[in-house]
Specification:
three-stranded antiparallel β-sheet
């Protein structure tokens, strides 16, 4: 072990997939959208020969398009958001017209290939014996469908990786747009702890372009706070560019919302925390029978979020389930507190040959 002293720290911890569980999501063959994309881009591997992509947000369409372009027989793209919501968000989405146009092109390309694209759906379950074999879902008219597949890419946008900021003592606030707890920052990336700055998706999910600009802006703020010269015009330019991207991000959250309502209808036997195999029913018992008022008390009662992923996969969904059980807004049940180590890794014993 060791320590590195610092006067100034810029945290750029990125983001991970935002997941809402459903029955059968722990079957082999079910991947996060980010995992499916990494498999294709980094390893030239497809998650399956006939995958379905389910969730919402721009990444859903991007990954499906990338798979289709690679020659994979994508069976369907199932989106929980509705077309009407996207139309209402169009004014904010138009803040970045080139990005908006690219998303429209991805959707059009999928349709031209004959791939079913369904919006406003409700996911019900993943079926399969030993591996994902079908997705069961309900359309906006209430009709139930079963789409056969051999793999599923699942995701509902991204969640900020905030654990380092939490351990550093930064103050957090609830963001009602994203329904996530995020670090409190000023316009330039200063946290509530002197000398600690945050940038990129780890502070606010706005995408790779915005992350680069936010990193530059945080660096300018840090240099200025250290008494070093910074061009005022550059700071103004960066703030203005980020304001445009923040507006676009608001449109994304409004047009492709996190489907919090799905947590209410999850069957009790559905696994929510896969690390510790904690079900929705156990979480409801913690909130109802054991009167857990917030997620950390529910964690103590049920072990939700105590596994190796440290609540990254289950934390947001667990909060929604607890809030629905108690009949309270999700911000009232708080957030899982971070604990070190952030990303535990197995240590292998060296064996001499």
């Amino acid at each position: 072990t060791g320590s590195v002293p610092f006067r100034t720290l810029i945290i750029a911890s990125g983001a991970t997939d935002r997941i809402m569980p459903l029955p059968g999501w722990t079957l082999p063959g079910v991947y996060s959208l980010g995992g499916a994309q990494i498999a294709l881009k980094a390893q030239a591997c497809a998650i399956g020969a006939r995958p379905v992509f389910l969730g919402t947000g721009p990444l859903l369409y991007l990954v499906a398009w990338q798979y289709a372009k690679a020659g994979v027989a994508v069976q369907a793209v199932l989106d929980t958001s509705s077309l009407a919501r996207r139309l209402r968000a169009l004014r904010d989405l138009a803040a970045r017209p080139a990005v908006l146009a690219r998303g429209i092109r991805y959707t059009a390309a999928l349709l031209r290939r004959g791939i079913a694209v369904r919006t406003g759906i409700t996911p019900l379950a993943v079926e399969g014996e030993g591996r994902a074999a079908a997705v069961v879902w309900r359309d906006k008219a209430g009709r139930e469908h079963r789409t056969a597949c051999d793999a599923l890419g699942l995701g509902y946008g991204l969640r900020s990786e905030t654990q380092l900021a939490d351990l550093a003592g930064c103050r957090f606030g609830f963001d009602p747009v994203a329904r996530q707890w995020l670090p409190d920052l000023d316009a330039d990336g200063r946290s509530t702890v002197p000398g600690i700055y945050l940038a990129g998706d780890g502070a606010l999910v706005r995408g790779a372009d915005a992350a680069e600009l936010a990193g530059r802006l945080a660096a300018c703020a840090a240099l200025g706070d250290l008494g070093l010269p910074v061009e005022a015009a550059e700071t103004v330019r960066l703030r203005h560019a980020l304001a445009t991207m923040t507006r676009f991000r608001r449109g994304l959250e409004q047009g492709f919302p996190w489907p919090a309502q799905l947590a209410t209808d999850l069957p009790d036997e559905t696994i929510v925390c896969r690390c510790e195999a904690i079900t929705a029913g156990e979480l409801r018992r913690a909130g109802r029978d054991l009167a857990a008022p917030e997620v950390n008390r529910a964690k103590a009662f049920s072990r939700v979020g105590m596994g190796r992923c440290q609540g990254r996969m289950c934390g947001l969904a667990a909060a929604e389930i607890l809030a629905a059980t108690r009949g309270e807004p999700v911000e009232a049940v708080g957030r899982l507190r971070s604990a070190a180590p952030l990303k535990p890794l197995p240590v292998a014993d060296e064996v001499e040959a």
